[in-house]
Specification:
The complex is a heterodimer of chains A (about 250) and B (about 90). Chain A has about 250 residues and is α/β, with parallel strands linked by helices. Chain A contains nine helices and eleven strands. In chain A, α1 packs across α8. Chain B contains three helices and five strands.
Amino acid sequence: MRWRIIPLTTYDAYMNMAIDEALSESVAAGADPTIRFYKWKPSAVSLGYFQSMDDVVDKDSCARQKVDIVRRRTGGGAVFHWEDGEITYSVIAPLDMYPKNIIESYKIICGYVIKGLKNLGIDARFAPINDILVDGKKISGNAQTRRNGVLLQHGTVLHDVDVHKMFSLLKVPDEKIKDKMIQNVMERVTSIQNFKKISQEETYEALLKGFCEEKEYEFKELTEKELERAIELAGSRYCSDKWNFMR
Amino acid sequence: MLHQITEKIPNGKLLTVKVEFDHKIKHVQILGDFFAHPEESIIDIESRFMNVELGFDGEDMIKDIEGLISRRGYELIGVDAASIVRLVKRALG
C-alpha cells in the first residue's frame, strides 16, 4: 500500500480540523492512505468531542490572548496547540489497514511517534489508552475516530511546553487549587526540549522519518478539491458556534 | 433542577454527568475526555435516561445500556455503562 505524506503545513485551528475531515472523505472515496504533519497559527485550544466548552475553556482568556478554540471530531481532552511548542500529525487510512481493536491500533500508530522520538535518542513508550510517555511523563497525546470505513488518528508531540500559559486558557474546577494543579501537570508532562535543545524543524524531521519507516510513500500536497472541501468545512462546521458549543 | 457530578474513572477518563430533573429525569448529558465510537452513540445512551423515574433500578439501567452498546456495536473507552449510571444516581442524590 502506497502512502501519501503531506509535509508540514501551518493553518489555523478551523482549517486544520477541516483538512482532517476532507482527507477522511477523500480516503473513504478511495484516495491513498495519508499522513500529514501540521502546526497551528494562531495558537489554539482544541476540545474533545464530548467536552463541555463552558466547563473546560476560559473563552475570555483565549480571546484576550488571541488563541482560537475548536472542537475536534475525536474524543479525549482539551489540548493547547502552542504555535512554537508542538508538531501535530494525522493518520488517515482505511479501517482494514489497522486492527479492529482500538487500543491495538493506537499502539501501532503511536509506534510511529515512538520511532520518531527514538531518532532523537529519546526512549518513549505507549501508555494505554492514548498517551506516549518518556520517563513516566506524557510527551504525546493522541485521539482517534472511525467513520465511513476510515480511521483518523491525530496526535500532538510536545516539542516545548508552557504549562502556565496552558492553564491560563483552561478552566480549573477550583481556583484555590490551581497552583497545585499546575505543579502536578508540570511533574507529569515533558517535552523534547527537556532532552535535546533542537529546533521545531528538527523535531519534525525526526518524526517524519519515524512515520515513513517501512512504508512505501510519496510526498504530495492536498489536492485542489480537498483544499476547497476543507475551506467549506472550516466555514460551515469548525468555525460555527453550533459545532463548537454543541456541548 | 440541574445537578452535575464529575469523577475520574479508575484506569479510565474524566466523566461528568449533568442531570436535569423534576419528578422524573428530563435530560442527561454525558461529558468528559473519554472516547465513544461512533461518537453519536453517546446521544443514544443519554436518551435512555429520558423520562425515567428518579428512583430507577441501577442494575436494570446498566443492563439496558450494555445491551444497547452490544446490539449496536458501540464502543466506549475510558468509561462504561456502570460508571455512567453510578454518576447519574449520585447526581440525583
